[in-house]
């Protein structure tokens, strides 16, 4: 009797492992398909901006380079990946009981790590400038902020300046919005813009 019970437990455990493995394999395959993401996110207006040419927000250039939703939002390391899956599981549960609504902000903020997976180095064939050289060029040195070496010590996340799904950015300035970025700059440059 004891052997039979142990046998049944082993079969049940093997079945659970198999079902879990198939579920994760299916989830991993589905999340790599943008259409799966669009089923719940990026409705209407955001989806149009994502696929529009000319680009109207920073997500457009990413779409043009065949960057998938999961490439930015999936997590750049195991810990973030598990957090994303956990949040997705909670959202799925809310959807199934009819309590899901489109989020108006990201609950798991993108870290620089998610961006630098692709954007490394940030400066491509751009000369590094000293603060004095940048000042002499009055901010007209192309990718100016990242070319100024003293900015290397600034601890600002990429998405504080470069937001992907907003329309207030300047396409000529990597979709950076002056009104959003100037307060960040003024944390060190108190008289900026005066």
Characteristic terms for this protein:
194 residues; mainly alpha; 11 helices; 0% strand
Report on this structure:
The chain is mainly α and 194 residues long. It contains 11 helices and no strands. The longest helix has 30 residues. The model has no long low-confidence stretch (mean pLDDT 85).
Please indicate the percent range of residues in DSSP E strands (runs of 2 or more): under 5%
Terminus-to-terminus distance: 85 Å
What is the count of β-strands? 0
Topology order in helix (H) and strand (E) letters = HHHHHHHHHHH
**Poorly predicted sequence stretches spanning 5 or more consecutive residues:** none
The biggest sheet amounts to: none
The chain-level structural class is mainly alpha
- Indicate the radius of gyration in whole angstroms: 23 Å
Task: Give a quick precis of the structure.
The protein is mainly alpha-helical.
Give the helices and strands, then pairings:
Blueprint: H1 2-31, H2 34-38, H3 45-51, H4 59-64, H5 69-73, H6 78-96, H7 112-116, H8 131-136, H9 144-147, H10 158-161, H11 178-185
């Amino acid at each position: 009797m004891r052997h039979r019970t142990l046998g049944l437990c082993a079969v049940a455990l093997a079945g659970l492992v198999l079902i879990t493995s198939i579920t994760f394999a299916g989830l991993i395959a589905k999340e790599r398909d943008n259409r799966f993401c669009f089923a719940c996110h990026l409705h209407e207006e955001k989806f149009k901006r994502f696929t529009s040419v000319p680009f109207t927000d920073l997500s457009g250039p990413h779409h043009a380079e065949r960057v998938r939703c999961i490439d930015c939002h999936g997590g750049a390391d195991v810990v973030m990946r598990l957090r994303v899956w956990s949040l997705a599981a909670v959202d799925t549960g809310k959807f199934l009981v009819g309590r899901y609504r489109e989020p108006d902000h990201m609950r798991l903020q993108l870290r620089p790590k998610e961006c630098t997976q692709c954007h490394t180095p940030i400066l491509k064939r751009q000369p590094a400038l000293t603060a004095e050289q940048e000042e002499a060029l009055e901010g007209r040195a192309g990718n100016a902020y990242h070319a100024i070496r003293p900015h290397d010590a600034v601890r600002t996340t990429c998405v504080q300046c470069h937001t992907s799904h907003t329309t207030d950015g300047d396409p000529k300035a990597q979709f950076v919005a002056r009104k959003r970025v100037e307060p960040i700059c003024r944390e060190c440059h108190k008289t900026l813009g005066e």
